[in-house]
Amino acid sequence: MNFEKKLNEYIEKVNFNIDSYLELRYPERIFEAMRYSILAGGKRLRPLLLLSACEAVGGNIEDCMPFACAMEMIHTYSLIHDDLPAMDNDDFRRGKPTCHKVYDEGIAILAGDGLLNYAFEVIFDAICKKGDINLAKAGKIIADYSGSKGMLVGQVVDIESEGKEIDKDTLLYIHDNKTGGLIKASLMAGALIGGASEKEVEKFKEIGYKIGMAFQIKDDILDVTSTTEVLGKPVLSDVKNNKITYVSLFGMEKAKEDFEKLSEEAVKLIGEFGEKAEFLQWYAKSLINRNK
Amino acid sequence: MNFEKKLNEYIEKVNFNIDSYLELRYPERIFEAMRYSILAGGKRLRPLLLLSACEAVGGNIEDCMPFACAMEMIHTYSLIHDDLPAMDNDDFRRGKPTCHKVYDEGIAILAGDGLLNYAFEVIFDAICKKGDINLAKAGKIIADYSGSKGMLVGQVVDIESEGKEIDKDTLLYIHDNKTGGLIKASLMAGALIGGASEKEVEKFKEIGYKIGMAFQIKDDILDVTSTTEVLGKPVLSDVKNNKITYVSLFGMEKAKEDFEKLSEEAVKLIGEFGEKAEFLQWYAKSLINRNK
User: Fold this and answer.
1) Peptide bond preceding A27: is omega within 30 degrees of 0, i.e. cis?
2) CA–CA separation, A48 vs A4, rounded Å?
């Protein structure tokens, strides 16, 4: 099977659905701002993981589409708010001016709020249309790992740690929650909707932990070893910002070692789901081999 | 029945539950900030409407408690974000420094995000525990009216209208959505959980529209007729800010007239639910007769 082609088809489907969910309507300015940020590109990593986890357990990806799009809305809301002057104060993302630079801070805050809220509007709509309580369990996972059991608390500890000496446990907590939260949620929710058992969902949590952690270690490695041209953003930014990373805390050798180990384990765990999981496995490998 | 006593009992129950949901835990700073804002007082208007609407159709209020607390979390998130420098830039609320003054802007943004997200964590938890798809319908109503069909879009049009001449339709849109959104959602969700039919839920939407609009007209009236001492906040603030209000657009006489009419209609509609709705009716009247 041509996985690359399939990947692009899935991305197109996700983009098409996001576009229709967020159709421009009154009051236009807020929908424009939400659309500006969510349609600015991006790998659609979380939707892709959700769809392919569903497929890996034999589910129908059409059932997942609202949830996949909701994950991207939640991811985008977090980027908009992270970029705000009161947080990371970033003027550019993916080479384009950030939401609060194009609109204003007030609208950017509301666009973030709007995307988070809209994710749950879309999820509840799907649950009610299907009348399937299993979908509510997927909703619960997404809510938990976006919030008090994942991304939000990871982000809090991250900004609280700025300029401080942090220990290994704290760094692992940040990576596992801030980056790993939505990755775990995507895989678990996708598997659940696809009909996975509780035990299988737990396995996807483990896969998510490993992919999330490997993803973040790679980020930390690339910040040191890559070039601005390849990465499309300034390198050595962590060093300049005195930011503790996996590399600065454990050293480059161990970082590379752990990255390899986590990646291999994740790929192996996915393999346990057999042929149906081949696309997910290929996709996980492509994330591991990325150079930007 | 002593309604005043019952009201205080309900408020205590709501406060007790909010307190336990948001128990202080790691990372403490964000839970502290969320607790600071949500436990800073407040009438608990939305939870009270939700509980008493459930009761008005013969439901058990214990089933509603997670939803009632979620409404207060959503309301509080909107206040925290509204108070931010990029929005209304308010240093005080209910006589206490606002969230971003006590903590910082970054934490205030995250505390708002956290409360919105946590509301849905609590709601999904309740749905999954009960395994009742009817509760998902209540979740959908809450998500819709907090977001793209209510509060969020109302707030967008409100800040977009600042310093502009707006027409009647725009003012009614702002009031119906920004203030009315959560009021309608509370009544509709409470009724739904209590076992109301679709037709009855629609009636609660109408009641919510009337209460929300009357509530907001009263706000606009009090800004002109009250004193800073009674109101606990500066009067004539709308006039000073050149803000178009119901009073400035329709005149004081018509504002009072419409307020009376909407209030009477709301109370009458509640009456159709008979004896079980007596507390809701009393509560609606107390909102109407408020002088602050």
Assistant:
1) yes
2) 12
A114 and A30 Cβ atoms separated by less than 8 Å = yes
- A246-266 confidence digits (pLDDT tens): 999 999 999 999 999 999 999
Interface predicted TM-score (ipTM): 0.97
Task: Tell me the C-alpha distance between A46 and A68, whole Å.
Answer: 7
Q: Which residues pair with B93 in a beta bridge?
A: B96
Distance CA A177, CA B235 (A): 46
Residue A227's pLDDT is what? 78
**Count of positions (residues) in chain A:** 292
A vs B, Cβ pairs < 8 A, gives: 150
Both tokens of B121, joined, read 């964590």
Whether residue A148 and residue B114 make contact (CB cut-off 8 A), yes or no, is: yes
Alpha-carbon span A2 to B270, nearest angstrom? 62
Q: Which residue has the tokens 């991811």?
A: A75
Single out the residue of B222, B209, B217, B210 nearest to residue B245, CA to CA: B217
A96-97 and B96-97 beta bridge pairing: unpaired
Residue B140 clears pLDDT 90, i.e. is over it: yes
pLDDT tens, residue by residue, B3-62: 999 999 999 999 999 999 999 999 999 999 999 999 998 899 999 999 999 999 999 999
Considering only A110-124, B126-140, B277-291, which range has the smallest mean pLDDT?
Answer: B277-291
CATH architecture of A3-288: Orthogonal Bundle (1.10)
- B267: which residues sit within 8 A by CB, 6+ positions away? B281, B284, B285, B288
Contact A115, A74 (CB under 8 A): yes
Q: Average per-residue pLDDT in chain A? A: 95
B121, B139, B143 ranked by CB distance to A147: nearest: B121
H or E element in which residue A96 lies: strand A96-97
**Shortest Cα distance, chain B CAs vs residue A159, angstroms:** 8
